[in-house]
Each structure stands twice: as structure tokens, then as C-alpha cells.
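Input C-alpha cells:
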């Protein structure tokens, strides 16, 4: 017998990464908010982010920061979104510091900025090489203190509750029970599509569920084929999520070398350029990887700035203070997604999308390194703020829900993957044949 129960909230946030957490923290405490996640709360891709978070460190850097972002995105970025992100970055960093986020500092107390590929200067804040962990952990601690926000782990969004072109909540499944969660507003913050790929830096449970629902409900999608392949993933011929080697190691001097130990590219070019150079070199070397050498980085800098990377490679049999490591490209990030305005509004009324799930145009065709955490926070915050303004005039409606087609969760997941991959193939068959046909 099917178990079904109902719940009511002002806002439901689907996803517990940086965007979802910050959106929840940006809403007033008189709103009843539920956050759900398919896995455990901190198992988001935001948590895995290594390199850091960009910031406009002084007004004189605005033009260069803007140009770096636009250039990396092949000038397909929405200019308004890029400007909003850069202009609001100092204030958001102040909020993070207020929540206890501990960015690395110099001996005089000033921020210690690092640099990554595509950046013309040092403007990236970091916490060792686990910046995402530091930010999401501190945001989660702040959210736990909020009496109006509750969580449900191991809960899967199976469908949207809709009537006409308006969203009224979600259908979720927890264990063997369906939960009809009615809400005035819904925020989709489910991340990208890495779980659909054989080789990805993403968690396996991040499978693009929001995009399958967008296709089902005719919600506007934008550039779903704009998928970033990260150049430096630690090469291990085993299944499962791949370990990312932060781009900041190249910003600090690490170089890519071929099988003969020769440098073959400019490591600080945007990611798509470096990936193309690697693919060409791998073809020449007849190997499934190239090597990344840390020889130009002092040992104390490696141990102090990149302890997590050092330890992972050491456990895999490589001492990066003494030898190069094998690296290869893998799926990393989705620049496209559900089309939104600069407040996260989608083409469906009362439905928002933020973070990697959304496409607000910041990243264009290729994301600039360390803009992802910043973009997630800026536009997650903006969604939270505008919801507060709009929700007062929205009533809680409870249309009937049809659960047919949701009973077999395995079949549901397979159908979602098929829909998403077919849409990517329709938009860009060349990319699909190269990276998605697995």
C-alpha cells in the first residue's frame, strides 16, 4: 500500500549546498522553511570546492575582474549578471566572515589572495585547499541556529506540484513514503549533472533532477550543453567520483608536462583551452593522462596551502613535493541550466532556481575559476530577499497530485537521465559524442 502524507511550508529549498543555505539565511525568520537533500546535508558539490572564492578586492580591479569573467565565458555572459556578482562580492564576503568563515590571512591580518587560470591578478580568497568545506560548514552552523528552518535528509524530489503555470510545492519521497510538500515558493538548488557522467568531480547523487522536471513541465532551460570539463583531475582508473586537483596549484606555479617531462601549454589559460591542450597531448603520448609537476612550488607552500591535495596524493602513492602526478580531464561544472532572471525567478510562477541549477548568464560558455561559490551566494541571497517581498501576497494552494509514474524510483531515475542526455545531444551532438556517450 502506498504511504502518502502532506506537509505545509512557506518555502521549500531543494538542495543544501552554498546557494540553498545562503538563500535560506537571506529570508526572514517568520517564514517556515524546509530544506531537503537526497543525501546527507553537507554532501554537496559546494562542500568539495577547493580553490576558493573570488572577490573584488578593490574598486580598481573591477574592469579586470569583469573582463576576465567575460573572456573566460567567450563573451556569451549576461553583462548585468556579471556586474551584479562583482559589485556585491565584498559585502557577501563580509557576511561570510560574520558567520565565522576563516579565510587565510597574512601576518598583518590582511587577506591572503591566490590566483587561478583565467585570472589576470590575485583575487581569490581561500581556506587552505578546502574552501568549500569551510564555507558550507559555517553556513550550515548558522542555519541550524535558525528556529524557522528545518531539514530532511535522504529525501528525493520526485516531481513539482503544479497547476497551470504556477508551482505549489513538490512531491518528495523518503524511504517508502511519498510526501506532498505544499509551499508558497520553491527554490531549486540541486546542483548540476555530474552524477550522470562516468568521470566527474561531482557527487554521484547529483543527477540533474531539476532539469528533468523542467523538461517535463516546460520550464525554460538555457545552454544545457554548456558543460565544463576540468583539466586537472587526479587520474585513477577506478569507478566513482574523481578527486579534483585545484586550479590554484597552477596559479601558484604548478606546470603540466608530457611523458618526456616537457611543458606543453600555458596552465593559466581558461579551463576549456587547457583541456583541449591536454587532450591533444594525451593523443600524442598515447596515454590516458598527462602529468602535473609541483617543482616550482616550495615544499612549505605545498604543505601549508594544499594539505588536502598533498595527503590524498600521498595516500595514492605520490609525494607531490618530490614527483609529478597523473591528471586527466573530467566533467566538473554546468554553466547552463534553468533560465532565471537576476533574482532567481524561473519561467514558472513561484519557482526559483539558484546555484549550479540556475542559468543567470554569469558564466557564459565557460566558467572562470572560483566564480562558482561567489555566484551561488550572490544570487541565492537575491532570491531569498525577493521571496520575502513577494510571498506576503501569495496564498497556500493545494491542488490535487497524480503520483502515477513515480512509483518505480529506479525507472524514474533512468528516464530522467535519458531526457537530460537527449536534450544535451539535441543541443550539441559533437560535445555529446565526445563526453556524454558513456
Amino acid at each position: 500500500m502506498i504511504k502518502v502524507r502532506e506537509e505545509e511550508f512557506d518555502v521549500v529549498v531543494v538542495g543544501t549546498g552554498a546557494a540553498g543555505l545562503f538563500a535560506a539565511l537571506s529570508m526572514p525568520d517568520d517564514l517556515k522553511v524546509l530544506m531537503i537533500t537526497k543525501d546527507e546535508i553537507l554532501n554537496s558539490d559546494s562542500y568539495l570546492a577547493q580553490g576558493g572564492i573570488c572577490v573584488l578586492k578593490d574598486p580598481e580591479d573591477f574592469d579586470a575582474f569583469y573582463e576576465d569573467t567575460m573572456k573566460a565565458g567567450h563573451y556569451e555572459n549576461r553583462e548585468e549578471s556579471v556586474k551584479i556578482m562583482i559589485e556585491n562580492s565584498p559585502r557577501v564576503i563580509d557576511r561570510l566572515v560574520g558567520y565565522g568563515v576563516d579565510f587565510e590571512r597574512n601576518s598583518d591580518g590582511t587577506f591572503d589572495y591566490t590566483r587561478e587560470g583565467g585570472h589576470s591578478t590575485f583575487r581569490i580568497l581561500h581556506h587552505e585547499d578546502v574552501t568549500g568545506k569551510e564555507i558550507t560548514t559555517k553556513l550550515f552552523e548558522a542555519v541550524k541556529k535558525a528556529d524557522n528552518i528545518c531539514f530532511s535528509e535522504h529525501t528525493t524530489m520526485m516531481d513539482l506540484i503544479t497547476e497551470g503555470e504556477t508551482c505549489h510545492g513538490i512531491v518528495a519521497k523518503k524511504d517508502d513514503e511519498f510526501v506532498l510538500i505544499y509551499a508558497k515558493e520553491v527554490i531549486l538548488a540541486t546542483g548540476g549533472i555530474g552524477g550522470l557522467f562516468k568521470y566527474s568531480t561531482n557527487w554521484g547523487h547529483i543527477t540533474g533532477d531539476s532539469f528533468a522536471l523542467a523538461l517535463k513541465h516546460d520550464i525554460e532551460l538555457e545552454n544545457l550543453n554548456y558543460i565544463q570539463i576540468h583539466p586537472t583531475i587526479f587520474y585513477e582508473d577506478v569507478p566513482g567520483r574523481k578527486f579534483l586537483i585545484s586550479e590554484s596549484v597552477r596559479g601558484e606555479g604548478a606546470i603540466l608536462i608530457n611523458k618526456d617531462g616537457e611543458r606543453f601549454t600555458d596552465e593559466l589559460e581558461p579551463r576549456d583551452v587547457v583541456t583541449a591542450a591536454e587532450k591533444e597531448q594525451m593523443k600524442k603520448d598515447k596515454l590516458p593522462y598527462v602529468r602535473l609537476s609541483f617543482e616550482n612550488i616550495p615544499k612549505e607552500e605545498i604543505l601549508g596551502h594544499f594539505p588536502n591535495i598533498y595527503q590524498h596524493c600521498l595516500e595514492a602513492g605520490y609525494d607531490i613535493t618530490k614527483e609529478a602526478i597523473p591528471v586527466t580531464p573530467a566533467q566538473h561544472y554546468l554553466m547552463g541550466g534553468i533560465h532565471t532572471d537576476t533574482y532567481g525567478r524561473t519561467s514558472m510562477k513561484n519557482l526559483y532556481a539558484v546555484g549550479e541549477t540556475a542559468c543567470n548568464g554569469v558564466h557564459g560558455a565557460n566558467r572562470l575559476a572560483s566564480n562558482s561559490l561567489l555566484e551561488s551566494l550572490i544570487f541565492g541571497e537575491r532570491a531569498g530577499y525577493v521571496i520575502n517581498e513577494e510571498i506576503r501576497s501569495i496564498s497556500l494552494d493545494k491542488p490535487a497530485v497524480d503520483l502515477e509514474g513515480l512509483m518505480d524510483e529506479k525507472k524514474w531515475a533512468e528516464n530522467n537521465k535519458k531526457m537530460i542526455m537527449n536534450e544535451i545531444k539535441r543541443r550539441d551532438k559533437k560535445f555529446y559524442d565526445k563526453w556524454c556517450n558513456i
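The mean pLDDT is 95. The longest strand covers residues 3-14.
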